[in-house]
Specification:
4-stranded antiparallel β-sheet, Aspartate Aminotransferase, domain 2, alpha/beta, globular
Length: 428
């Protein structure tokens, strides 16, 4: 006798959870008295700007830079106004500019590509593999004499295949900039992300693992890169307040400085980072163990991880047999109050997928001259199109994504697993 399947909530059945999952703002949802006291201390001494004020209180931003560098295992850290600013400063620090190309994955937030354009260089779009990070086998297909760097983006908390990427970079004489915006604190074989390449760029925006609302950090072990980046980030005043000797001449820059309130918040949030990672890793492991047998039986695979122990565990990602099934499973899970989403839909714009970067594909620039694409120093052709990364689109279309919040209890994790098993058994 064949037992009838449990009725799905989307069909009128009883959902496995009575309410939606908690919001996915890991550090943001942990904001409490320590952050309040840190901010009030800044307001009390009235030192809102890192380089001067009425009080002799040492700069919180400078303290955050020291602490962040020490925690991550780098020599230098530079606090900036956003993760995009960290990428832009890092590219300038590397000396990348007009006529240069930087290889960027087709699955990353659009800022990875726009930072390259802001540096007056051209992003070249490469495929991701089933880890949803840059595919090492696709990198070399895009290397030209104009290629200066590879941007290794550690998407959704998981490290790239850094062994392969660093080997390619060494062999081809390329630099590596790590975009660690979605993986603060994660590691690869015991070493923190952001310390493998010449530059590591981090985001402290509200949706990230730890947050100052807006903000970013740049890491490097090379003084020349650090000096170029810090001149550029404070170029409006030629590094006002800087007392260390510079290894490079001054040049004009912009204003990407971090303020003292963000610095104070960052110091508290950095202390929370290990705890956040532990909670997310524990809850994800619990869910994954509970659904593994059903997933295997139904032909569902997990996103491959280049270092399972090192990931930040911010998300559980499953591959369905088809894109249609991914959308169907995601809708059914959401009805069970297990908030889920499929990761690519042609009709739903998403700045994380190169398919939707229409203005970049069309090489639309704010001036008619069209630099950096139509620049006298650039003689390449990026060959952009909506279907330039078919493997990436197939993987994303078949993916179902579930956030793993540090606020999840063990009961929450068990209910998520129950919902996944229920839906997979019903629909596959």
């Amino acid at each position: 006798m064949t037992l009838s399947r449990e009725k799905l909530a989307i069909e009128g059945g009883v959902p496995v959870r009575s309410k939606p999952l908690p919001p996915m703002f890991p550090g943001g949802m942990m904001i409490g008295e320590e952050e309040k006291q840190a901010v009030m201390a800044v307001l009390d001494d009235k030192n809102l700007f890192r380089f001067y004020g009425p009080s002799p209180t040492p700069s919180r931003v400078a303290a955050l830079e020291r602490r962040f560098a020490e925690y991550m295992g780098a020599k230098y850290a530079l606090a900036v106004s956003s993760g995009t600013a960290a990428l832009h400063c890092g590219l300038i620090g590397l000396g990348i500019g007009p006529g240069d190309e930087v290889i960027v994955p087709a699955y990353t937030f659009i800022a990875s590509a726009t930072a390259v354009i802001a540096a007056k260089a051209v992003p070249i779009i490469a495929e991701v593999d089933d880890s949803l990070t840059l595919d090492p086998f696709d990198i070399e297909r895009h290397v030209t004499r104009r290629t200066k760097a590879i941007m290794a983006v550690h998407m959704r908390g998981a490290p790239c295949d850094l062994d392969s990427i660093m080997e390619i970079a060494r062999r081809r004489g390329l630099m590596v900039i790590e975009d660690v915006a979605q993986a603060d604190g994660a590691s690869y074989h015991g070493k923190r992300l952001g310390t493998f390449g010449e530059v590591g760029a981090f985001s402290l925006q509200y949706h990230k693992v730890i947050t100052t609302g807006e903000g970013g950090m740049l890491l490097t072990n090379e003084q020349t890169i650090y000096d170029r980046a810090r001149i550029f980030h404070d170029g409006a005043s030629a590094f006002r307040g800087g007392k260390e000797r510079l290894s490079v001449p001054l040049f004009p820059g912009v204003n990407y400085r971090m303020g003292e309130i963000c610095g104070a918040l960052g110091l508290v949030q950095l202390n929370r980072l290990e705890g956040l990672l532990q909670m997310m890793r524990a809850r994800k492991a619990r869910i994954r163990a509970a659904i593994a047998e059903t997933a295997r039986a139904k032909g569902v695979s997990f996103r491959r991880l280049n270092d399972p122990a090192g990931e930040a565990a911010v998300a559980l990602i499953l591959y369905m047999p088809t894109a249609d099934k991914a959308r169907e499973v995601a809708r059914a899970l959401t009805a069970e109050n297990v908030n889920a989403g499929s990761m690519f839909n042609e009709g739903v714009p998403d700045w994380h997928v190169a398919f939707h970067w229409k203005h970049i594909i069309n090489q639309a620039m704010p001036t008619e001259r069209g630099c950096p694409f139509r620049c006298p120093l650039y003689d390449g052709e990026p060959n952009y199109s909506e279907d330039m990364a078919p493997k990436t689109l197939d993987l994303l279309a078949r993916s179902v994504h579930i956030n793993v919040s540090p606020l999840l209890t063990e009961e929450d994790a068990d209910q998520i697993a129950e919902g996944i098993v229920k839906v997979l058994r019903a629909l596959l």
